[in-house]
Write a structure and sequence with these properties.
heterodimer; A: mainly beta; 4-stranded antiparallel beta sheet; 0% helix; B: mainly beta
Chain lengths: 107, 115
């Protein structure tokens, strides 16, 4: 199974900050990485697929990059509605595996 | 529009079998896969398995020996069965539509395993 190591587990930011979350895979995932946002009591919401392709409705302040085993997700100008947990997902191989998650909080 | 909705018992006794239903609308189960993901309270997302549009399945080896995913395409329903539940199986269970990534999700159903 591909292990996804996501960091940091938690992040404290002020409104307007830029934050970055990383995911490292145990093997090359060939850019088959997606990023999800989850708010308490809600289902995850797909933000980005294939490393950097924004879903319809995803604000442009969100971005993704990476290749091989190393991927990152950034929010360029944190807004209050971005306070949530974020997860990476590899979908190159079965079983699919999620990163452990990053909880974004307001400083 | 695409919708998924999970249903099932909120409380299951230890060693008993969990049966959940995911009722979908707005797409055909013959064209899309459906996955099950669970999330223990305060923890991360755990991929459990997938029922592909062609009817084949794949499971996480963590659960493979005690779970199955089946469907009734005529009723647009996907079923998750998992036996021998333990307290560590207490979690929110989600179903989602699969087309490489998971773009539509149900609201989830909370399952508590307790005597």
């Amino acid at each position: 199974d591909i292990q996804m190591t996501q960091s940091p587990p938690s992040l404290s930011a002020s409104l307007g900050d830029k934050v970055t979350i990383t995911c490292q895979a145990s093997q090359n995932t060939k850019n088959y990485i997606a990023w999800y946002q989850q708010k308490p009591g809600k289902a995850p919401r797909l933000l980005i697929r294939f490393t950097s392709t924004l879903e319809s409705g995803t604000p442009s302040r969100f971005s993704g990059s990476g290749s091989g085993r190393d991927y990152s997700f950034s929010i360029s100008n944190v807004e209050s509605e971005d306070i949530a947990s974020y997860y990476c997902l590899q979908y190159v191989d079965l079983p699919r595996t999620f990163g452990g998650g990053t909880k974004l909080e307001l400083k | 529009q695409v919708q998924l909705k999970e249903s099932g018992p909120g409380l299951v006794q230890p060693s008993q079998t969990l049966s959940l239903t995911c009722t979908v609308s707005g797409f055909s189960l013959s064209s899309y896969g459906v996955i099950w993901v669970r999330q223990p309270p305060g923890k991360g997302l755990e991929w459990m398995g997938v029922l592909w549009g062609d009817g084949n399945t794949n499971y996480n080896s963590l659960f493979k020996s005690r779970m199955s995913i089946t469907r009734d395409t005529s009723r647009s329903q996907v079923f998750l069965k998992m036996n021998n539940l333990q307290t560590e199986d207490t979690a929110m269970y989600f179903c989602a539509r699969e087309l490489w990534v998971y773009d539509y999700w149900g609201q989830g159903v909370m399952v508590t395993v307790s005597a």
